[in-house]
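Please, structure for the following, as tokens.
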Amino acid sequence: MPAGPSLSDRQRLHWLRLIRTENVGPVSFRGLINRFGSAEAALAALPELALAGGAARLSRIPSEAEAEREMEAARRFGARFVAVGEPDYPPMLRRMDAPPPLIAIKGKAAVFQPPAVAIVGARNASALGARMARLLAAGLGREGYAIVSGLARGIDAAAHEASLSTGTVAVLAGGLDRPYPPENVALAERIAAEGALVSEMPFGWEPRARDFPRRNRLVAGLGLGLVVVEAAMRSGSLISARLAGEMGRIVFAVPGSPLDPRAAGTNGLIKDGAILVTEARDVAGALAPLSGGPPAAGGALPLEEPIDFSAVPPPAQGERALVLQALGPAPVGIDELLRHTGLHPAQLAMVLLELDLAGRLERHAGGAVSLIFPDP
């Protein structure tokens, strides 16, 4: 499906307000648009939906003035907001499960058209690890691949620097105007001039520890494959590798000395089935069957066949009670919930959306959900 038409300025404003509302994530955003037809209509319905889901308090909805200020901040910074389904939205992100509805981009949209490979690794990279990242990035660039990474010090920075001339994309954990770490600000400016910076976070947002897994998800989603150069056993790079595997991307790892803690994670990935990499041709050869044609596009919202909410009446308290009884702290699949409750898919989707907006639902990989219980 080709990319859809561009949003109007007013539509973009309300999309920004909706995605910036607390408890509205990519999945609930999609459900709201499918249910109400527009972000403006969804915003009007949010308080009633959250109360139906048992919200202890109503989420604050950004005003039009606040959204306009953020859009103006983006313009001053030389960036733009791109919605899923629009022509400039990265095609590989449209293939993700629950892609971000709206992302901020500074740079050249053309960098998203070639096939891409993500390269990630340790911040405290060894000299050999950084050299390997540069060799892989430069070699894959010559093969026609763009390089994606997270602008961190160490392996990320080495991969970006080596692919500036062939195409590189940096995904930020904070707002586009808050690159991290500070020593990579100059590198970020060069990437914006030659490639692109991407973020789903608000302008002015200082990155926190919990924001980096969100960044890692986009890093993994933008590439056909992901290469881990160096990683300790507990590291963000292994989170990126896990996310890439869950998305169906190919995971690669560079082996290292068993005596170096920075190689423990990569050696573990190889033991678990990641493809061993010693040169760029290892990656290019494995990805060649996947990179011959344009990525399959998800198109404009709705991102999947929309549920017909008019097919059945809205859920009543009895239906809500069935869903709450079926849910617990352990993740359960939507199909299992449908079988257990006997509800129509539209009724179940609506109850889950209400719980999501009330901050009572946690979503997991593969579409599973669980109930969030308040602290005792």
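DSSP finds 15 helices and eleven strands in the chain. The CA atoms of residues 164 and 190 lie 8 Å apart.
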